[in-house]
Structure formats: structure tokens, C-alpha cells
Write a structure and sequence with these properties.
This protein has about 180 residues and is an all-alpha fold. About 85% of the residues lie in helices and about 0% in strands.
Length: about 180
């Protein structure tokens, strides 16, 4: 082979290598363009992430402050509830004491009323029992509903009830 032929072959090889090199350069350029676009997207995502992180930190700080405030107000409410519970317990205890005194007064008044009733019954002869049914022993006017008989036994019962009521009222006033 002669020298000029070698030179043409060499030129063709270099030309082919240059075409291959241009192809790889174009491919590299496309990859670099894609990488550049991805970098811009990544930076915008990182900017959004940073903004979200700052907002989250601010929200966490607000929550901490509000939790502290709520904790303080809950503690104050608990203290107030404890004071109210103690006051209510005191009132319940006093109420139980007053109820016990009232019950004792009522018991004493009942015993006195029973003793007076027993004494009154001892002084009076026992009333006769009617052998008639109740409806037939009623001697009043059926239309007006008024009793035509004497109500002496009823007056004594009313006086006894009235006296028991007044004794109960006196006992209640004495407890105040």
C-alpha cells in the first residue's frame, strides 16, 4: 500500500471517530440538560421543604406555648375544684349534723306526742266501735258532704297535730 492510500484510510478512520465523538457529545449534552432541569426542580423542592420545615417548627412552638398555657389553666381549675370539693364536704358534714339534730328533735317530739296521746286515751273511755260498715255509719248529708254528728274526737286529734307542728317548728328554729 502506498502512502497516500494510508493517508486516506486514516482520514476516513478519523472522520468516523469524529462522527462517533459528535454523537456522544450530543448525548452528553442532552444528559447535562436533563440534569440541569432536575437540579432546578430539586432546588425548588428543597425550597418548599425548607419553607414547610419552618412552618412546622413555628406550629410546634405555638403548640408548646398553648400546651403550657392550658396546663397552667388546668392546674388552676383543679385547685379551684379541690377548694369547692372541700367546701362541699364541709357543707355536707354540717348538713348531716343538722339532719341528726333535726331527727333527734322529731324523735323527741314524737315520743312526747305519743305520751300525750296515751295519757289522753287513759283519761277517756275507749270509743265504741260501730258494727255497721263505714258508709252506713256516716251520719252526714250525702249531697252536701257535711257531718251532722259531733266531732269532739276529731278536735282533740287536730289539737294534738297542731301542737306537734308547733313543737317541730320551735325545734327547727332553735337549731338555727
Amino acid at each position: 500500500m502506498n502512502l497516500p492510500d494510508v493517508s486516506v484510510v486514516l482520514d476516513i478512520v478519523i472522520a468516523v471517530l469524529l462522527v462517533v465523538m459528535i454523537y456522544y457529545a450530543v448525548m452528553l449534552n442532552r444528559s447535562l440538560s436533563t440534569l440541569k432541569k432536575s437540579k432546578e426542580e430539586l432546588q425548588s423542592l428543597l425550597g418548599g421543604f425548607e419553607e414547610s420545615t419552618v412552618k412546622a417548627e413555628m406550629a410546634i412552638n405555638r403548640i408548646k406555648v398553648e400546651a403550657t398555657d392550658n396546663s397552667v389553666s388546668v392546674k388552676e381549675l383543679i385547685r379551684e375544684a379541690d377548694r369547692l370539693r372541700e367546701d362541699l364536704q364541709f357543707l355536707v358534714d354540717r348538713g348531716e349534723g343538722v339532719a341528726d339534730k333535726l331527727e333527734g328533735g322529731i324523735t323527741r317530739n314524737r315520743k312526747g306526742a305519743v305520751a300525750e296521746t296515751t295519757a289522753a286515751q287513759d283519761r277517756k273511755p275507749a270509743p265504741l266501735r260501730a258494727s255497721k260498715p263505714l258508709a252506713s255509719s256516716y251520719s252526714g248529708d250525702a249531697e252536701t258532704g257535711q257531718d251532722s254528728g259531733e266531732s269532739g274526737g276529731e278536735d282533740a286529734g287536730k289539737k294534738l297535730k297542731s301542737r306537734s307542728k308547733s313543737d317541730l317548728l320551735k325545734a327547727l328554729q332553735g337549731m338555727r
